[in-house]
TrEMBL record, chain B:
Membrane topology: Multi-pass membrane protein
Membrane-spanning residues: 35-55, 62-79, 85-104, 111-128, 169-188, 216-236, 256-278, 290-312
Compartments in which it is found: Cell membrane
Principal location class: membrane
Domain of life: Bacteria
Signal peptide: none
Protein name, UniProt field: ABC transporter permease
Keyword terms of this UniProt record: Cell membrane, Membrane, Transmembrane, Transmembrane helix
UniProtKB/TrEMBL annotation, chain C:
Location relative to the cell: Cell membrane
Transmembrane annotation, as ranges: 6-29, 36-54, 60-79, 91-114, 134-156, 185-207, 219-238, 250-275
Coiled coil segments of this chain: none
Similarity remark: Belongs to the binding-protein-dependent transport system permease family. LivHM subfamily.
Domain of life: Bacteria
UniProt membrane topology term: Multi-pass membrane protein
CDD domains xrefs: TM_PBP1_LivH_like
Record lineage: Bacteria, Pseudomonadati, Pseudomonadota, Alphaproteobacteria, Hyphomicrobiales
Name of protein: Branched-chain amino acid ABC transporter permease
Keywords: Amino-acid transport, Cell membrane, Membrane, Transmembrane, Transmembrane helix, Transport
InterPro entries: ABC_transp_permease, BCAA_transport_permease
Length: 411, 338, 287
């Protein structure tokens, strides 16, 4: 029985809160000639490296929409909140956005913990939540729409490629929290599917800076490839110590998070050259649409704007997909916008064609396998139109509209 | 007589606010202030154990966090929030007795004790962040690792798990709990036991030579502070609807210390006011982008310490009664190396 | 055989790193009873000074060993003059002020340099040991840490300044009576402590991510190491590092890193329970 007592309590809590929310939902934007959306990112604190450029991407999208005459005749106003890398701020600001600023959509809450703290609040006040970060996948909730890649969309193509081209023996080293552990399960799924082997799953606390023992362990295991899911500033030490031990040239590193925190810029080229990652977007993408997009970014943030990576690009694509849905719905109402998003919105942007997927509330998109050389990324292989995983049919908001818990991949 | 009136002023103001707030404030402010009061309650616990007993507890957040987690797990398992709040108080108390026995009966003191409790809270932080695996669960509730426990039910009518309290009622309960905690601690401080605790703060040796078992009094005070912090943690989780390992981390631990020092060590009203002030400031800074939030927040703290080194309450009292020789209170004492 | 050598290296390395990040704090705390919450940010500033100086064309060794400590000493001098000096003797108030300083420095660095700065890589290449290889720079790090600790020890026990400093630390009133300007001793101590923290940051710059928030990863561990060391200035924290470091390294290797980290903290708790004023009370008699 999936619908546990707990999730039942959750929904009834939402119902009782609807009485408060009801008096506010709708109407706020009807009379005014602007409509507000919220950007909820870490603009200071340790996670600002993800939040600042992501917020910038939202700003670019909003300016583009307004320059083209706004949405349904209204100017879009971006309300910006600084989560300060403090998870406690997220429910607070989500509430502020919903109750005080009467926004029609909230985007942001990039880290898993921030997202989990924000989701229930927005569900309670019935404000659609667009999630722009790549993530472990398996979030199939009525009120949330994920526009970046889910677990299978990055890990599956990357590991398929790596098992084929780099070797069968994989060593997984990751930061110790939810998403990397979930990606770790995907490693085993893929190893089973492709006949590979996961030699070890090593999880390190987020503030570890000494990786001497970790590197010795990897050297002893002699893998063909190291899959790193190390996240955050302290973990950058791993790449430095790995290169200092002369390992970069010996064992290739693949990753689905590397560069999201601009690791390729903070670290020196001789410490990162050859690292291979998979993202839906990277700044060097050579398409006309991307040139247009980068020109707009430059117009907003100047020539020295932060690097736009696959993580923060969701800030742009999320707002644009939402705007397409608003246009199709002809309304800012939650139900209408969600229904439009569920009706396969197709949008061609800098990263190629993206199509919203109704049942899973995730997005079908291209994924690029890329390699860094001297701080510049180049394309190795493009995998076209990868659909989100359905988790054996369980990820379906039509059949499970009250589903809020995460789904896990099964080995 | 005048003194009693003066002491009653603050809780009366809180009760009035609890009663009138729902009529004048927006729902968002109500939710926010409920969360602030929950934090302020926890800060009161530290203000008591540090200000009255002189125990520098740098890891006060461990009790706050245990209360928060205990509430989240209990309410999701049991359904009824009243019992869950009580469990949220009982858990930290039980833990504080074990920890306190360990600490006080070895006559640890001073900053060394503070570091032990800080280590303890950091151990909880590392442990809780490493529980992402679904095999870590209590009843149907997964501990959830770094993401914590989400969608925690809010407060409900005692005995009826389906009757959730409104935002207004929750607000009133939080503020009344704050007033209650304040009254309880004030009474305790002015009781006989409280006077002995103050004596212990002033001189452990003298108190002991007078025949008091200082270890016992410290243990009791420690447990009381844990209970208050647990109450704060439980209410905070109920208001916010989630709990994550961050309740145990270093920034959270230092925040309580900040509020108590800023409010004035030895005072109760000051820490409460300071906790509201600093939470409000940080929440306002994040919603209105002026400049880098950390820069402004840091500069504010520095300026505050420079201008009001003895804390808010002693300064205001000093100004009102103009008793200059006594203005600096206990912070003036030079602390001797161990 | 080679795996044993590598394990020994990992253990020695972890002791050296713990000692390196704690030394500056130990000097400031041990001498002045000031808990410097901005310690991590002094490390961060040392890292930034190195990286920026190197990008401006200064030789890497020069920027690490000279520019960074001088720069952080300067910051330390300003902080001491404007903030810490006014609060001597108030342990908790200084803690609060330095916490504000730490946030302020993070904010200032972010405002000036943004949150991404191009780093420098570790020099000196690597040394193969059987099936393994280690960074030669890490060996250098161990060596220089040892040098740093030994020279602090010598400076404290064999120089006139060391004698004065120890006198001011042991009994400031008596020292003042003998004509020592204690405020000046404290100021110099704080600046020296800051310079050592800056040097630590500079030495760590090539093997860690130089970011505005890098200090946060070090401050709690440094703090725990210094306090469990107890009253004896250098020997105290050094012995604590020698006990805590290997436990963490070995358990991280043989169990999991979470266990390693938790046992470091747990061991510190046990040490303080058995020796309530730190490891060094074993030979200083609890002073």
């Amino acid at each position: 029985m999936k619908l546990s007592r707990r999730s039942f309590l959750g929904t009834s809590a939402a119902l009782s809160a609807a009485s408060i929310a009801g008096s506010f939902a709708g109407g706020a934007w009807a009379a005014s000639d602007t409509v507000a959306i919220a950007s909820l990112h870490d603009l200071s604190g340790a996670l600002d490296i993800y939040g600042v450029p992501s917020n910038l991407c939202m700003k670019v999208a909003v300016e583009e929409i307004n320059a083209a005459g706004g949405l349904l005749g209204k100017k879009v106003e971006l309300k910006v909140y600084d989560g300060q890398s403090d998870i406690n701020k997220y429910p607070q600001y989500a509430q502020k956005a919903a109750l005080n600023d009467r926004v029609v959509m909230v985007q942001g809450a990039l880290s898993g913990a921030a997202r989990e703290a924000t989701r229930p609040v927005l569900r309670k006040y019935k404000i659609p939540f667009i999630y722009g970060s790549f993530y472990e996948g398996g979030l199939c909730e009525k009120n949330t729409f994920c526009v970046n890649t889910g677990g299978n969309q990055q890990v599956v193509p990357l590991l398929e490629w790596s098992f084929k081209n780099l070797g069968k023996k994989l060593y997984y080293i990751a930061s110790d929290y939810n998403a990397p552990r979930n990606f770790g399960i995907w490693n085993h799924v893929m190893a089973k599917r492709e006949g590979g082997q996961v030699l070890a799953d090593d999880y390190y606390p987020l503030d570890v800076t000494d990786f001497t023992a970790a590197i010795a362990k990897i050297q002893a295991a002699k893998p063909d490839v190291v899959h790193s899911c190390l996240v955050g500033g302290p973990a950058m030490s791993f790449y430095r110590q790995w290169a200092a031990a002369g390992m970069l040239k010996k064992i290739p590193i693949i990753s689905i998070v590397f560069a999201a925190g601009n690791e390729h810029e903070v670290l020196a080229p001789e410490e990162t050259d050859g690292v291979i990652v998979a993202y839906n977007y990277f700044q060097e993408l050579d398409t006309p649409k991307n040139k247009e997009f980068l020109a707009k970014v430059e117009a907003v943030a100047g020539k020295n704007h932060p690097y736009i990576n696959g993580e923060v690009f969701g800030g742009y694509s999320g707002v644009m997909l939402w705007a397409e849905a608003v246009k199709r719905a002809g309304s800012f109402e939650r139900e209408a916008v969600l229904a439009a998003l569920e009706s396969s919105i197709r949008w061609e942007g800098p990263a190629g064609v993206m199509t919203t997927d109704g049942p899973t509330h995730n997005t079908t998109q291209d994924v690029h396998i890329i390699k860094v050389e001297n701080r510049v990324w180049s394309l190795i292989e493009k995998k076209e139109q990868i659909p989100p995983d359905t988790y054996g049919g369980k990820c379906n908001v039509f059949t499970n509209p009250n589903q809020t818990d995460f789904l896990m991949p099964q080995i | 007589m005048m003194r009693q009136v003066k002491h009653a002023l603050f809780p009366v103001a809180l009760v009035l606010f609890a009663a009138l707030g729902p009529f004048v404030l927006e729902p968002y402010d109500l939710v926010n202030l409920s969360a602030f009061s929950a934090m302020a309650i926890a800060a009161l616990g530290l203000a008591f154990v540090w200000g009255t007993l002189g125990i520098l507890n740098l890891g006060h957040s461990v009790f706050f966090g245990l209360g928060a987690y205990a509430y989240a797990i209990a309410v999701s398992n049991l359904g009824d929030s009243t019992l869950a709040v009580l469990i949220g108080i009982a858990m930290p108390v039980a833990f504080s007795l074990v920890l306190g026995y360990f600490l006080f009966f070895s006559r640890l003191g001073d900053v060394y004790l503070g570091v032990i409790t800080l280590c303890v809270t950091l151990i909880f932080y590392s442990f809780m962040t490493s529980t992402a695996d679904p095999s870590f669960h209590i009843g149907p509730v997964p501990l959830g690792g770094f993401n914590g426990i989400t969608a925690v039910p809010s407060l409900n009518m005692p005995g009826d798990p389906q009757a959730f309290l409104s935002t207004e009622a929750t607000f009133s309960i939080c503020l009344l709990s704050l007033a209650g905690a304040y009254i309880l601690l004030s009474f305790l401080r002015s009781s006989d036991a409280g006077r002995i605790m103050t004596a212990i703060r002033e001189s452990e040796l003298r108190s002991e030579l007078l025949g008091y078992d200082i270890r016992f009094y410290k243990l009791v005070g420690f447990a009381v502070s844990a209970a208050i912090a647990g109450l704060g943690g439980a209410l905070y989780t109920a208001v916010m609807g989630y709990v994550s390992p961050n309740v145990f981390d270093l920034p959270q631990a230092s925040q309580f210390v900040l509020w108590v020092i800023a409010g004035g060590l030895g005072a109760f009203v000051g820490p409460v006011v300071a906790s509201f002030g600093f939470q409000l400031l940080s929440s306002q800074l994040g919603a209105n982008q002026v400049f880098n939030t950390e820069l402004i927040f840091g500069a504010t703290i520095i300026l505050f310490v420079m201008l009001v080194p003895q804390g808010l309450q002693p300064m205001l009292l000093g100004l009102s009664s103009l008793k200059f020789p006594n203005r600096f209170g206990i912070l003036r004492r030079k602390e001797k190396p161990a | 055989m080679d795996s044993f050598v590598i394990l020994c290296f990992a253990v020695v390395n972890s002791v050296a790193l713990l000692a390196l990040i704690s030394l500056g704090l130990a000097v400031i705390f041990g001498m002045m009873r000031v808990i410097n919450f901005a310690h991590g940010e002094f490390i961060m500033l040392g890292g930034y000074a190195t990286v920026i100086a190197n990008h401006c064309g200064v030789n890497l060794w020069l920027s690490m060993l000279v520019v960074a400590p001088m720069f952080v000493a300067l910051i330390g001098a300003v902080a001491e003059r404007l903030i810490v000096r006014r609060l001597y003797g108030h342990l908790v108030t200084t803690m609060l002020a330095t916490w504000g300083l730490s946030l302020f420095l993070i904010g200032a660095v972010t405002a000036i340099f943004g949150n991404t700065t191009m780093g420098v890589s570790a020099p000196l290449g690597n040394i193969p040991i059987g099936a393994y290889s280690i960074g030669a720079y890490q060996l250098f790090l161990i060596g220089i840490t040892a040098l740093l600790v030994v020279s602090s020890l010598l400076a404290l026990h064999w120089t006139k300044y060391g004698l004065i400093a120890r006198a001011a630390m042991q009994n400031s009133e008596m020292a003042a009576t003998l004509g020592i300007n204690c405020d000046r001793v404290y100021a110099v101590t704080f600046i020296v402590g800051a310079a050592i923290s800056g040097l630590a940051g500079a030495l760590l710059a090539p093997i860690s991510g130089v970011l505005p928030h890098m200090g946060a990863a070090y401050v709690a561990r440094a703090f725990v190491t210094v306090i469990s060391g107890g009253g004896a200035l250098i020997t105290g924290f050094l012995s604590a590092a020698t006990i805590l470091g290997p436990v963490e390294a070995l358990l991280s290797y043989f169990a999991t890193p979470v266990v390693g980290q938790a046992s470091l903290l747990l061991l510190a708790v046990i040490i303080l329970r058995l020796l309530p004023t730190g490891v060094s009370s074993l030979w200083t008699g609890g002073r």
